[in-house]
Write a structure and sequence with these properties.
single chain; 639 residues; alpha+beta; Heat Shock Protein 90; Ribosomal Protein S5, domain 2; formyl-coa transferase, domain 3; 8-stranded mixed sheet; elongated
């Protein structure tokens, strides 16, 4: 009887392993560049075509591969970097598993040429699908050149699931820029479809590398961290000024012992150091290398070698957080608002305080009565009404006074009277709260008709519009209202393809990192449909020539980066064009601006035409309402 269980052949094993090691062209480039770094190269040249799908070439001037070893390097688990498991405790190379070349060779067509120091000639080897086609001596310079063609040519399922050329290029850009940053003592040259993307000098100057790769304004907003002398850890690199962040974590770049890693613990420590220093929904930028004794980290977590575990993770986190906090405190000029204490969205200033006695107006005794609660109505009710948000703590009455000795009639009477007062107070407060929370509208809950009692009371903190209408007091967040009005207008115009554009007298230009530039090119049509005319200029610069008329002149060109970040983080259910319009509207609104009576009236007129629910495109509430009856009940003018 034939056996059902059998050994797989070596090529099949390698193709299966390639599914884990080689996730796409960017994985190939990462593995090959890391090999070049381990070979002590001082110059590395990377060239790709068609997102690396059809052509990848890596050339270095490293030590080269001996002719005797040229075939062995394509065998699974062959390596010159470790001899036994204990060597992982003192690892000082990026590679060590001996899987990458065998995996790459099994799913592509490879040509490798290499020459070692002192040899008269080099050696060339050609493989296809893991099988050797030819081997010969050739004339060559010291180092190694590897050319990869037709990745996944023999695994149609893997090839089918590769992303678009532009998407794969974006991933490659990210990998190459980070590898170049990690080794400022190596000169990198990167060419994409015959276009030079960037070069780095290789003079061990990280500042020059960052200037070669990233926009100038990003570099100018970075703070340098010189290497620390602490034992056992050292940290060096750059972090962003607190007022300069991104819309996602894409530029939180960490290296551990010069190895590019992804680490939630390091991100958490970084963001903890920036806590209360960055605007909400913004993330810091960093390029940091943390030196840790090799025996205190485990890099053998995943074949990609981008995940690490620290032996003392909490200690590393605290070290990183303390160092960044120290630098931010000493090396930055923090811009503070002109008030004693800034309040977060969850700690907004109260409008009223429900405390009954011994009122202390200091902040520490004021209840948290934020302005941003909302009551979600059923679909058939057609809207959302926003109210103030008394917490359960605010509404909790003081504990009633009780008396153990009830034989004394005066004490008994006092106790009953106090209990009655407490119950009445609690009932009043609960009725007011119920009145606020039970508001349901099938239309916008205000009128700007003077015959309906409409009257503008003014502007508060140059941020909120105060008015009364139909015996109700209203507060409007002018920024959120303006943003919503603008969004509705642009969205409808884009939907009907009737956006009116304005040509900028002085076009705005912006330089992007290679990965941002690639992502923009991939989504250029979306910007066009949203009303922007943006042209590519050179290999990394955009020229903004036209914007939607409704937006006015952009404050600056940085909003393009915010839009690119939003597209990068976009969920599959989000409409891309809507996302672009949202971000553009947010950029167009000027916060904390004094409005004239005419401007306020015009804003409210347009807001009244908005379809409920009343919130800005990003979900923030626009309107707070408080009826006259609610105020009267609170102040006990009625029962």
């Amino acid at each position: 009887m034939a056996r059902k269980v059998k050994m797989l052949d070596e090529i099949t094993i390698n193709q299966i392993a390639a599914g884990e090691v080689i996730q796409g062209p960017y994985s190939v480039i990462k593995e090959l560049v890391e090999n070049a770094i381990d070979a002590h190269a001082t110059k590395i040249f990377v060239e790709i075509k068609n997102g690396g799908k059809s052509y990848i070439r890596i050339t270095d001037n490293g030590m080269g591969i001996d002719p005797e070893d040229i075939e062995m390097v394509f065998e699974r688990h062959s390596t010159s970097k470790i001899n036994e498991i204990e060597d992982l405790d003192s690892l000082n190379t990026l590679g060590f598993r001996g899987e990458a070349l065998a995996s790459i060779a099994s799913v592509s067509q490879i040509e490798v040429t290499s020459k070692t120091k002192g040899k008269d000639t080099g050696i060339s080897l050609e493989l296809s699908g893991g099988e050797i086609l030819s081997k010969k001596e050739v004339s060559a310079t010291q180092g190694t050149t590897i050319i990869i063609r037709n990745l996944f040519f023999n695994t149609p399922a893997r090839r089918k699931f590769m992303k678009s050329v532009k998407a794969e290029t974006t991933k490659i850009n990210e990998v190459i820029t980070r590898l170049a940053i990690s080794k400022s003592d190596i000169s990198f040259r990167y060419v994409n479809n015959n276009n030079l993307m960037f070069t780095t000098p290789g003079d061990n100057n990280l500042s020059k590398v960052l200037l070669s790769i990233f926009p100038k304004d990003l570099y100018q907003n970075m703070i340098y961290l010189p290497p620390t002398e602490e034992i056992p850890y050292k940290i060096s690199g750059f972090i962003s000024q607190p007022m300069y962040g991104r819309g996602n974590r894409n530029l939180e770049i960490f290296f551990v012992n010069n190895r590019l890693v992804k680490s939630q613990s390091l991100s958490k420590a970084l963001e903890k150091a920036y806590e209360n220093k960055l605007m909400i929904h913004r993330f810091p930028i960093c390029v940091l290398n943390i030196e840790v004794p090799p025996g205190e980290i485990d890099v053998n977590i995943h074949p990609s070698k981008t995940e690490v575990k620290f032996y003392e993770e909490k200690k590393v986190e605290n070290f990183l957080m303390d160092r960044i906090t120290e630098v931010l405190t000493k090396g930055t000029k923090i811009v503070h608002p002109n008030i004693q204490q800034a309040h977060s969205d969850n700690e907004r200033r109260p409008i009223v305080s429900p405390q009954r006695e011994n009122v202390d107006i200091s902040n520490k005794h004021q209840p948290n009565m934020g302005l941003s609660s909302k009551v979600d109505l059923p679909n058939d009710q057609g809207g959302t009404v926003y109210t103030r948000e008394p917490t359960g703590k605010d509404l909790k009455p003081r504990t009633p006074i009780t008396y153990k000795n009830s034989s004394t009639s005066s004490s008994s009477l006092e106790g009953r009277l106090n209990n009655k007062l407490q119950q009445d107070q609690k009932q009043n407060e609960e009725e007011v709260q119920e009145s606020i929370l039970a508001v349901k509208e099938d239309h916008l809950p205000f009128s700007i008709d003077p015959t309906q009692g409409f009257h503008i009371l003014g502007q508060v903190f140059q941020s909120y519009i105060l008015f009364e209408s139909q015996k109700t007091l209203f507060l409007v967040d002018q920024h959120a209202a303006h943003e919503r009005i603008l969004f509705d207008q642009l969205y409808e115009d884009a939907k009907e393809k009737r956006i009116i554009r304005q040509r900028l007298l002085k076009p705005e230009s912006i330089r992007l990192s290679p990965e941002d530039y690639s992502l923009f090119e991939d989504h250029h049509k979306t910007f066009e449909e949203a009303g922007f005319t943006i042209e590519s200029f050179g290999k990394d610069t955009l020229i903004i020539r036209e914007v939607p008329l409704a937006l006015g002149r952009p404050k600056d060109s940085s909003f393009i980066i915010d839009i690119i970040d939003a597209i990068r983080e976009r969920k599959s259910t989000e409409d891309e064009k809507t996302l672009v319009i949202q971000k553009a509207c947010k950029n167009a609104i000027k916060a904390n601006r004094k409005f004239s009576q005419v401007e306020i009236q015009e804003l409210l007129y347009k807001l009244q035409k908005t379809t409920p629910p009343l919130h800005c495109p990003h979900g923030r509430p626009i309107l707070l309402k408080l009826e006259e009856r609610e105020l009267a009940k609170f102040f006990k003018r009625i029962t």
